[in-house]
Each structure stands twice: as C-alpha cells, then as structure tokens.
C-alpha cells in the first residue's frame, strides 16, 4: 500500500476546512484511506539520521505538520495532494466529479514508432499539457507523482516508465526507436557532457537510485530511445531523460511520454499524469502505437 506525505495546512486550505487530527482520521476512514502518521520534516529527518547527526548536518528541515496517508494500491489518482483533495471534495459532495476529454488541436504532434522497439518496450503513449503555471509546490508534487507512479503501477519502471519534457525546447515530429547501445549518444539529465548508452550503464551502476533500473534493458540487443525532429534525445527509457528538455518552474508546455510493456497500464499511467488538478490543461492528446 503506497503512502503519500502532504502538508496538513496546505491540505486543509485546499479542502476549505480545518480539521482536528481525530476528525481528519475519521474522514479518511469513511473515504477508504488511512491517516498513518502525523509528523514533520524535522521529525522524519531525526528519525532517519538521529538527532545529533541531523543537527550536525545543519539541515533546515521544516517543522510544519505532515500527514502521512496510506492509499489503496488501486487508487493511483490519489497519489498526490491534488488528486487526494479532488477525491475528498467529490466524496464530501462539494464538487462534481470532473470529466476529462482529449481535444484534438489543429496541428497535432506525431510520435512515430520504429519496428525495432518491439524487441524491448513495444508500447508508447504521449500527451501534451499546455499553458501550465507551476509553483514550487505544484512542481514538486508533479515530480513526486511521477515517482509514485513509477514505483506502483509502473512496477519500478519495469512495466511503465514516464518521461516529462519542456515541449518548447523540442521540435516534432518525434520518433520512438530502438538502437544498439553504442549508437545512442546524448547528454543525460543533470550532466554536462555526452555519453554513449554503454557509458551510461557504467556511470549509473554506481548510482544509488538509478542502478536499480538498469537490469530492465541492460541485456537487450537494442535500447529504447526517443528523438525529436533534430535528433535531440528526449529520453532513454526506462533509465534517464536527456538534459536538453528537462522541465523547470518556467516550463509552460509539457510533453509526457510513457513507454511500457503493458498497454493497459501505460494508458492508465498517462491519464494519471494528465489529470493533476493543479495543472491548467488547454488540451491533451493521447496517441499510441505498437511496433
């Protein structure tokens, strides 16, 4: 059962009501989720490192109250504060359940799939979020939601991997390809020089986070890679995005690409990324192809 951590005061502000811990616990029980713990960033840091080490590291952890909430494994829509607030407000009959639809733009982007991708990750789904205005809080929530989806419905990226990109730094049409690793070269996220895919596997074998995903494609004869029209690499899923198209607080249009070995789960995952309530979506477009 996944757990999310949300700031209590921000949660209550979004719900339009202040609760005691006991009252909110009851609301969670009625809704079908569980308030697992009432804590703070400072308390979590002390628990993880010990009080002396935490103070020695001069970590300026916040003392704001954090609710840690257990979410049912099949409720991927509740894995961020925005989704949780939306669900609770619908449950409390304060808002109607939202209805989403894809609106075809006059000039839709194309994502072309090469046959070789069938050897490694055969499915790809994409969507565009337009006219977004990120705050630091909504940006952090967006990134955290991706991680939660990776770990849960994506089964640690083995079934589904998500890449998000600043669309304004790219040019379509896009291509989803699979190439021998020595032929893939790009500057990966938060790096300053170009690596081949072979070199990246060695680089990330020492990374405490990314090394856990290398086995998904490491023994394949070809690796998946997504390019834009100018052969700029968006990502080498499910390992790492390119640095060129990384999103930031100033990003206004986001391209989401999800690659997978399971079609049903990748469609579900992409829909979860699109419908975070805090994002102002002008239109979104789904398109998928199987090699």
Automatic annotation (TrEMBL):
<dbReference type="GO" id="GO:0046872">
    <property type="term" value="F:metal ion binding"/>
</dbReference>
<keyword id="KW-0030">Aminoacyl-tRNA synthetase</keyword>
<dbReference type="InterPro" id="IPR040659">
    <property type="entry name" value="PhetRS_B1"/>
</dbReference>
<dbReference type="GO" id="GO:0006432">
    <property type="term" value="P:phenylalanyl-tRNA aminoacylation"/>
</dbReference>
<keyword id="KW-0067">ATP-binding</keyword>
<dbReference type="GO" id="GO:0009328">
    <property type="term" value="C:phenylalanine-tRNA ligase complex"/>
</dbReference>
<feature type="domain" description="B3/B4 tRNA-binding">
    <location>
        <begin position="120"/>
        <end position="280"/>
    </location>
</feature>
<dbReference type="InterPro" id="IPR045060">
    <property type="entry name" value="Phe-tRNA-ligase_IIc_bsu"/>
</dbReference>
<dbReference type="GO" id="GO:0004826">
    <property type="term" value="F:phenylalanine-tRNA ligase activity"/>
</dbReference>
<keyword id="KW-0648">Protein biosynthesis</keyword>
<dbReference type="InterPro" id="IPR005146">
    <property type="entry name" value="B3/B4_tRNA-bd"/>
</dbReference>
<protein>
    <recommendedName>
        <fullName>phenylalanine--tRNA ligase</fullName>
        <ecNumber>6.1.1.20</ecNumber>
    </recommendedName>
</protein>
<dbReference type="GO" id="GO:0005524">
    <property type="term" value="F:ATP binding"/>
</dbReference>
<keyword id="KW-0479">Metal-binding</keyword>
<dbReference type="InterPro" id="IPR020825">
    <property type="entry name" value="Phe-tRNA_synthase-like_B3/B4"/>
</dbReference>
<dbReference type="Pfam" id="PF18262">
    <property type="entry name" value="PhetRS_B1"/>
</dbReference>
<dbReference type="GO" id="GO:0003723">
    <property type="term" value="F:RNA binding"/>
</dbReference>
<dbReference type="InterPro" id="IPR009061">
    <property type="entry name" value="DNA-bd_dom_put_sf"/>
</dbReference>
<keyword id="KW-0963">Cytoplasm</keyword>
<comment type="similarity">
    <text>Belongs to the phenylalanyl-tRNA synthetase beta subunit family. Type 2 subfamily.</text>
</comment>
<keyword id="KW-0547">Nucleotide-binding</keyword>
<dbReference type="Pfam" id="PF03483">
    <property type="entry name" value="B3_4"/>
</dbReference>
<keyword id="KW-0436">Ligase</keyword>
<comment type="subunit">
    <text>Tetramer of two alpha and two beta subunits.</text>
</comment>
<keyword id="KW-0460">Magnesium</keyword>
């Amino acid at each position: 059962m996944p757990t999310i951590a949300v700031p209590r005061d921000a949660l209550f502000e979004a719900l339009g009501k202040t609760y005691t811990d006991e009252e909110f616990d009851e609301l969670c029980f009625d809704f079908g989720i569980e308030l697992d713990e009432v804590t703070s960033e400072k308390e979590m840091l002390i628990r993880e490192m010990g009080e002396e080490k935490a103070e020695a590291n001069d970590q300026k952890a916040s003392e704001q109250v954090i609710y840690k909430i257990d979410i049912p494994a099949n409720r991927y829509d509740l894995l961020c504060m925005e989704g949780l607030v939306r669900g609770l407000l619908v449950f409390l009959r304060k808002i109607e359940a939202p209805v989403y639809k894809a609106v075809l733009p006059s000039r839709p982007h194309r994502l072309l799939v090469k046959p070789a991708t069938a050897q490694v990750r055969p499915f790809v789904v994409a969507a565009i979020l337009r006219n977004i205005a990120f705050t630091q809080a909504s940006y952090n929530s967006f990134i955290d939601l991706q991680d939660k989806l990776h770990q849960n419905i994506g089964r640690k990226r083995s079934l589904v991997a998500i890449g998000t990109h600043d669309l304004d730094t790219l040019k379509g049409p896009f291509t989803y390809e699979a190439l021998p690793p020595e032929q893939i070269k790009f500057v990966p996220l938060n790096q300053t020089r170009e690596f081949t895919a072979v070199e990246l596997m060695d680089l990330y074998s020492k990374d405490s986070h990314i090394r856990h995903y290398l086995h998904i494609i490491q023994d394949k004869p070809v690796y998946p890679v997504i390019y834009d029209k100018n052969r700029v690499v968006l990502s080498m899923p499910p390992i790492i995005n390119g640095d060129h198209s990384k999103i930031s607080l100033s990003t206004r249009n986001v391209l989401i690409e999800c690659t997978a070995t399971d079609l049903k789960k990748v469609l579900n995952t992409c829909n979860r990324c699109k419908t975070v309530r805090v994002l102002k979506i002008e239109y979104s477009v789904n398109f998928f192809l199987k090699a």
